[in-house]
Amino acid sequence: FLQKSGYRRAMKNRTTATYIARVLIGMSALIAAGCVGSAEHAKSTTNPISESAEHTTRLERLMAEFWEAYTAELPTLANTFGDLSHTDKLDQMSEAAFERRRRMFDATLAKAQSIPREALPDAQQTNLDMFIWLVSNERRLLDLPTRFMAFSTLGGWHDALPQIIAATPFRSIADYDKYILRIEQVGRLADEVILLLRRGIETGFVHPCDSLRGTADAVDQLVPADIESSFAYRPVRNMPDGLKGEAPRIQKRVKITGAIKRGEII
After folding, report:
1. SS3 for 224?
2. What confidence tens digit (pLDDT) does each residue in 215-262 have?
3. For residue 179, which of 256, 254, 246 has the smallest C-alpha distance?
4. Are 50 and 38 in contact, with CB atoms under 8 Å apart?
5. d(Cα 180, Cα 82) in Å, to the nearest integer?
6. What pairs with residue 156 in β-bridges?
7. Which parts of the chain sit beneath pLDDT 70?
8. Cα–Cα distance, 263 to 165 (Å, whole number)
């Protein structure tokens, strides 16, 4: 039962974070464009309207703060959506990190639920309802042991690495400095995932063996014969012409090679 139900929950969990991110982006875009709720509270300066505007501002600020905290906790997800604020970081998968996210979600829900729904314009009431539902749903997922199933044939942390490298621009030396910091964390991330997998084995919350057929082959394809063939070395091979001078190029090649070795990307 654990294997079957865990597998279904894991598949749902793979898409939930992306779904939440997409909806929050869409809601933020509407708010930024003034398309949601602006007319309702801008027509009058009476006290009820002023109160409505105040609570609308609270909601908009809370959503923006949550998105900042959310992307800081999940920098690789942020990267895939074009948010380049955290390209020097990889996700943290330790139990302490999961507990920190639970506290973040709990604090956000408490603030959202403290906003008087009836004082908001109709459109903002819908925004509040959606926001609370989305955050509550993902908060519940954090209590499930699906984190123990860190990969499958559909994907996982290992094949996310080449994807985020492909989604990251390299236009300046600063971009390469951040990249070095990011790939130096791969060893730490791998260790955290190994602990999660071991915890899954201990609790019996694992994928059915048949669902993992072919996963090892997919991982092997990411392991090249030498460092310069590594997907992690690709940004070095394709350094832009705008970064003039051989000295900076050689320096970055050496530093990134070292980071690849220390991060155990081979």
Report:
1. coil
2. 788 777 777 777 777 888 888 888 888 776 766 776 777 677 777 766
3. 256
4. no
5. 19
6. 151
7. 1-49, 244, 246-247, 250, 254, 261-266
8. 15
Provide the 3-class DSSP secondary structure of residue 149: coil
Determine the pLDDT at residue 71: 93
Q: Cα separations (Å) of 225 from 142, 185, 221?
A: 38, 22, 10
Q: What share of the chain is helix, strand, coil (3-state, %, to 5)?
A: 70, 0, 30
Q: What pLDDT shows up at residue 17?
A: 52
Please give the Cα distance from 122 to 190 (Å, whole number).
Answer: 47
Residue 81's pLDDT is 86
Structure tokens at 92: 């943290």
Question: Cα(127)–Cα(61) distance, rounded to whole angstroms?
Answer: 13
In sequence order, the 6+-apart residues with CB closer than 8 A to the CB of 138 are 16, 17, 20, 105
Q: What is the model's pLDDT at position 80?
A: 85
82 class by beta-carbon count within 10 Å (0-12 exposed, 13-18 middle, 19+ buried): exposed
At residue 172's C-alpha, the angle toward residues 76 and 156, to 5°, is 20
Q: Enumerate the H helices of 81-185 as residue ranges.
A: 95-113, 122-141, 157-166, 173-183
Which class for 46: exposed (0-12), middle (13-18), buried (19 or more C-beta within 10 A)?
exposed
* 61 within 8 A of 156, measured Cβ to Cβ: no
Half-sphere exposure of 91 (CA within 13 A, CB side): 24
To which residue do tokens 């019996």 refer? 204
pTM of the entire predicted model: 0.73
